[in-house]
Automatic annotation (TrEMBL), chain A:
It comes from Aquicoccus porphyridii. Pfam families: ABC_tran, TOBE_2. The keyword Transport applies. Residues 10-240 form the ABC transporter domain. This is ABC transporter ATP-binding protein. GO terms for cellular component: ATP-binding cassette (ABC) transporter complex. Keywords: ATP-binding, Nucleotide-binding, Transport. One of its GO terms (molecular function) is ATP binding. Signal peptide: none annotated. GO terms for biological process: putrescine transport.
From TrEMBL, chain B:
Coiled coil: none annotated. It comes from the Bacteria. SUPFAM superfamilies: MetI-like (SSF161098). The chain crosses the membrane at residues 21-48, 94-115, 127-149, 176-196, 217-241, 276-298. It comes from Aquicoccus porphyridii. This is ABC transporter permease.
Length: 359, 307
């Protein structure tokens, strides 16, 4: 597994990318470690694909440096960069069979026909496509094409593999299976993977570390657990999973704790994200960490506005005294008393479940 | 234009065949009456005896084909020798048409590429500009070309004025003039099908090639050209076939020394010097050659699909 102290494979140093007046990437700095499964996660148009294309060499950067194991590659054309890409729509060569597709990069690197063919066979076995070696891309299913694209990019044994939403064209079931395969492949090959996706579940399940990107800026970098449990700011908390954002006024920040006043007047101490400040702020509390309680002595009180039955769980939407809404996710067990619409209920959460965010 | 040649009877054509018969009947009738019947008449005429002052006598004869390939002396009773005159005319037609095709490809491919890579709005304008000359009659365009390239025409005047040459270049009545005429006449037939193919080209393929260490040249020769090949072949056929049978450009620009098949056939049906069976036979030989080219194309297509 990737260790944070491992060597830096790709060093993205203060990279800015401008398209005319539009800033696609704004002073992005990231250190991606050797043998790491690193994910660039963000909504569409956030700049994650642009960043990947800058690493691959399809886009020039306006400012900054991209170093691959210490060498600045920012000015090299794509065919001189020892990285390979798995394209979103695979971009398989339609006039070549599977083996020829996989051999393409090897032949360009000057390997002999026989060597390239042997290596192609090896990689096709790795992605379990040996029996399709002589098929044309058009004769393959989406999942098979995706694996050919993977094999083709892995064949030259790149230092870094770039994956541009490679699963987005697959159906849900296949996508889940391929996630595990990709992760396993990364472990087996020891190649650094840089994976672009807008799907948070994909990012959370596969990655060693995730960079959450929005508006051309890196919002937070960390493990899946870090960014889910300890989001730094409102964007990250909101984008990763579901969360409740509760308006609070912060009286004081002491170290990594914040003393704040909840709507309704209760004083409450909770962890604060680095950079949070006193004044008006937002607490993030995940719905599964909110529990229903007796209104007397609860942190908050609300009126039930909607009940959504989800089988294993129940979503209870409530309105707080300040008019904001809040959701609790309650486990559907016999011990739970499910409130009725219009009931006034108390809401509790532990100190550690809430987090004051940077707005 | 290109679609007609590339597309065979697909699955959907068979599925709808039941509904298609009454709808497709007019098309079959037109093709039958105006294509198959005239070719049939030509085929029959090529095996008839010639009537002086034009026309035919209804008497079976191989004389037309014999005259095309063999020389039997002035009175027709010498031992047969190969007649090179017409074979040479055919040969000239083939290389002129071939060269015009090559030239059109070399100019047409970058042109088509340029147009297809413009933003969608400007593409329409470029395509429109390509077709503008076609609003003018081919005869007038060919004569205009003659005016452009003649000894005291604008081209020579400009070159003389610029001091690049000291004597006018004689282009009219040379094979070069024929080449220019053919190239100019049929270039759009090269550009349009290639444009259609390039427009559908997935540019991610070029990125994938570059990502896999291919230089620009390798990307062009090993990815782009093979992928847009159907458009290139369609364009080549659309230029080669009409060039082969062309008679305006060789007649008006090439003069007597640059006779091509089209002119030869044309002459056989004009006035008293004409020879209808011979013209029909020459036309049938030309048709067989065109068919050979098309069969070659169809087979290469079928091979491509089977792979």
């Amino acid at each position: 597994m990737a260790q944070s102290q491992g060597a830096v494979a790709v060093d993205i140093d203060d990279v800015t990318k401008l398209y005319g007046n539009f800033t696609a990437l704004s002073a992005v700095s990231l250190a991606i470690h050797d043998n790491e499964f690193f994910t660039l996660l963000g909504p569409s148009g956030c700049g994650k694909t642009t960043l990947l294309r800058c690493i691959a060499g399809f886009e020039d950067i306006s400012q900054g440096a991209i170093r691959l194991y210490g060498d600045n590659i920012a000015d090299l054309p794509p065919n001189h960069r020892p990285v390979n890409t798995v394209f979103q729509q695979y971009a398989l060569f339609p006039h070549m069979d599977v083996t020829r597709n996989v051999m393409f990069g090897l032949l360009r690197l000057g390997r002999s026909e026989a060597e390239a063919r042997a290596r192609a066979g090896e990689v096709l076995e790795l992605v379990r496509l040996s029996e399709f070696a002589n098929r044309m891309p058009a004769q393959l299913s989406g999942g098979q094409q995706q694996r050919v694209a993977l094999a083709r990019a892995l064949a030259p044994n790149p230092k870094v593999l770039l994956l541009d939403e490679p699963l987005s064209a697959l159906d849900l079931k296949l996508r889940q299976a391929v996630r595990l395969e990709l992760q396993q492949l990364q472990h087996e090959t020891g190649i650094t993977f840089i994976f672009v996706t807008h799907d948070q579940e994909e990012a959370l399940t596969m990655s060693d570390r995730i960079a959450v990107i929005s508006d051309g800026k890196v919002q937070q970098v960390g493990s899946a657990r870090d960014i889910y449990e300890e989001p730094d700011n409102k964007f990250v908390a909101d984008f990763i999973g579901e969360t409740n954002l509760i308006d609070v006024s912060v009286a004081e920040i002491a170290g990594d704790k914040a003393l704040c006043t909840l709507p309704g007047g209760t004083r409450f101490t909770c962890p604060a994200a680095r950079g949070a400040h006193s004044g008006q702020g937002h607490l993030s509390v995940r719905p599964e960490r909110v529990s229903l309680a007796d209104p007397a002595g609860a942190l908050l009180t609300g009126t039930v506005t909607r009940l959504i039955y989800l089988g294993t769980d129940m979503h209870v939407d409530m309105r707080l005294s300040d008019g904001e809404s809040i959701t609790a996710r309650v486990q559907n067990s016999s011990q739970t008393t499910i409130p009725a619409m219009g009931d006034t209920v108390g809401l509790d959460f532990e100190e550690g479940a809430a987090r004051l965010l940077v707005d | 234009m290109a679609g007609g040649i590339g597309s065979g009877p697909g699955k959907s054509a068979r599925t709808y065949a039941g509904f298609g018969v009454p709808l497709i009947l007019p098309a079959w009738l037109v093709i039958g009456i105006f294509l198959v019947v005239p070719i049939g008449i030509m085929l029959v005429y090529s095996f008839l005896t010639k009537e002086f002052r034009g026309g035919v006598i209804w008497e079976f004869s191989l004389a037309a084909y014999d005259q095309f390939f063999f020389d039997r002396g002035l009175f027709g009773d010498d031992p047969p020798e190969i007649e090179w005159t017409y074979i040479l005319i055919f040969w000239r037609s083939i290389w002129q048409a071939g060269l015009a095709t090559l030239l059109s490809l070399l100019i047409g491919f970058p042109t088509a590429w340029f147009i297809a890579t413009r933003p969608a709005a400007t593409r329409t304008i470029w395509l429109f500009l390509i077709t503008v000359p076609y609003w003018v009659n081919l005869l007038i365009r060919t004569i205009s070309m003659k005016f452009l390239i003649r000894d005291n025409g604008p081209l020579n005047t400009w070159l003389l004025d610029a001091g690049i040459i000291s004597d006018p270049i004689h282009v009219v009545n040379t094979w070069v003039a024929v080449q220019l005429g053919l190239f100019y006449s049929y270039l759009p037939f090269m550009v349009l099908p290639i444009y259609a193919a390039v427009e559908r080209y997935n540019f991610a393929l070029s990125e994938a090639a570059a990502d896999l260490y291919a230089s620009r040249f390798v990307t062009l020769t090993q990815v782009i050209i093979p992928v847009v090949k159907p458009g290139i072949i369609a364009g080549c056929i659309l230029v080669f076939v009409p060039s082969l049978g062309s008679f305006l450009a060789p007649d008006l620009l090439g003069g007597a020394k640059n006779f091509m098949i089209g002119s030869l056939i044309d002459e056989q049906f004009k006035g008293a010097a004409g020879n209808w069976p011979f013209g029909a036979a020459a036309a049938m030989i030309l048709l067989s050659m065109v068919l050979l080219v098309l069969i070659f194309y169809a087979r290469s297509q079928a091979k491509g699909e089977a792979r």
